[in-house]
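Follow-up to my post from last week.
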Amino acid sequence: MVLAKYIGRKLAWTLVVLVVALMLNFLLPRLIPGNPVDAIVGQIAAGGGTGGEQLEQIHEHFMQEFGLDKPLWQQFLIYIGNLLHGDFGTSFGQYPASVSHLIGQALPWSIAIQLPAIIVGWVVGNMLGALAAFKGGWFDRGAFVGSLFFSSVPPFALAIILLFVVAVQMGILPVGGAYSFGMTPELSVTFFGDAVTYFWLPFWSLVLVFIGGQAVGMRSMAVYELGSDYVNYNRGLGVRDAMTVRYIFRNAMLPQFTGLGLSIAALITGGLIIELVFSYPGLGTLLFNAIGQNDYPVIQAITLLITLAVLIANFTVDVLTGFIDPRIRAAQSGER
Amino acid sequence: MSLRGLPPRFWVSATLVGFIVLVAVIGPFIVQTDPNATVGGLYDRPRCCGALLLGTDNEGQSVLANLVYGTRTSLIVGLIAGAIATVIGLLVGLVGGYRGGWIDDVLTAITNVGLAIPAIVVIILVSVSLPKRNIYTLALVIGLTAWFWVARAVRAQSSSVRTREHIDVARLSGAGFWSILARDVLPYLLSYVVMAFVLQVSGAILFESTLSMLGLGPGNATSLGTMLYWAIAWGSVRTGAWWAFVPPTLMLTLIVFALLLLQSSLNEVFNPRLRRGPAARKKAVTPGAPSEAPLVVGEPTPVGAAGMLETPTSTGREQR
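User reply:
Got it. Predicted complex:
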């Protein structure tokens, strides 16, 4: 029951934050002085090649889509209603393309980079940190300094250097993009084999930084645990090291796990910029192009997606913590 | 606290930070080249000496001049944003933690919502909406979205200071609310605030470069991020024009690394228990003082290695 209550509270909290995020997402771009649609149509007109009648049509379309002639609260309801239908509106920059379509094309690439990077980075980083703390000596020093370095390098800086050294200078891996020219994305071995060569560099740039951060955190947690009473007691009892290490690992794990939720926003942001460096066709590159074209609907959709991803990740971490953390279970038996 | 007792890491990081500040402050006077002046062709190779020491960028401007001015811009943005974030966070945290009650509840709720929404999202949305972007608006936006961490940590500490006896004494002697905050609560947090400020500066510099790379950089100035933006947009990485992107990349890495190192060594300075140097060890074995030696038996390093271990309100997580 306590667990259900705990999860319910977390869910309610997530929903509150989501509503605030939606309001920000809705309000902030509307703070622009003047009417964004006029500005955009002006831009399209300045670009030339579009007749007056067509411009009128585009203007009508956007005015209707955003309901800009209605009061603000109605606009917000229209916005929410559209979102619930999965309708993010129409792109300004690539007019009649729908934003959902553009996002649909970009999102899988971003997920393909970020999800494995987060999982691999977290697992490897924690193992490295725990090992370094337990082994000590030169291994500890090397792993610690290395991790500290990688965790403090800005992710995109590492990406730029990797791109230059590995792809441009050494020519081992392709320079940019997601698959070779002439290929079309499909579920085949040849395509996968081709795409994976483009995948390595952005993946490693993200993973190395994340491993560094996790290893540093895990190492200090494990070092802290190593000095605690139960470890000394175990030693006195003559318990095998392997057993003690398991206890240490489990205890040091929990803060690392909750830390995952906190670092996820940084990781996603870093991933988006890394995509830019490699012109990987994910959300980061889409965002970059959208900013260049003042494409508000696309920008808004991407910021909303980032928020959603972070909220979902945090909620998942919270729920799993509820299952893992014995204290929450203990509270359960304690209350009765 | 004598100067000699400071850990070597502090001196290393202080030297690095000093070097960076020197580049930003004196650099422009030494280089004496307008970063916006065209002094060569597209990606001219570096040659000795003067403004072309690091070649030219995509517009034929001196990379060296851009680098020193860019460092200056990045530091200005970092310092302003860091100061704004630290001051707001400090105020909110102090008042919330000390006052308690519904004010605390409201402030904590705001802080938690702010922490849950990724800062980059708000910064992108605001930057896109701004009609004109310069380094000050950028710094303001970054500062206004970055204070939540400081507020949370300061609140945790000030609410624990609140229960101490000297606060009661101050209250009995008739000290006012703000006077107690400033004289009796703040001193306990000062060391933390200094460290938080250093972290905020480094975070803000990273945010600025991230925004600039997305194309949301300051419109009227060169920053390290805008240098990278142009270098990537014009394919300098692909064509092998390393002088266009390696200097800003290294400078950014250096700045962030130096500031993180400074923060962690300041932690050691303020919290002598974390110190590891020979002096600290000598103190640890002085007779009478409770020695930590029993803990290290059988394990060569672990306990002393807690140098990186931070206070429970771990500041390490604040990096974005």
